[in-house]
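Continuing the batch. This is chain 6 of the set; chains 1 through 5 are on the previous pages. Same settings as before, nothing changed between runs. Recording input and output for traceability.
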Amino acid sequence: MPAPDPHGITIEVQGNGWSLLIETFLLLGRTQRKARARRILANLHRDGWACRNCGGPVPEYRRADARYCCEGCRKRVSRNRRKLPGKPLQNRN
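Output for chain 6:
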């Protein structure tokens, strides 16, 4: 599955809110980009689409359901979670 187009959606900060610019080519990928833009806007309104580890902004070229700004942050959280004593990790099937 290909990654999202890094130039397809642009986030702009305007005053106290955000705006998204969506580039579509004819009718190709229009529905998916609209759905992705809605998800990104929901993330921005909820928590500013911030990384759950370092608090930095998540780049717009990341997936719309991304929780971390980079692989390093995601792996750091995973390593820390494995080090915690207590319940064993459950399989995510």
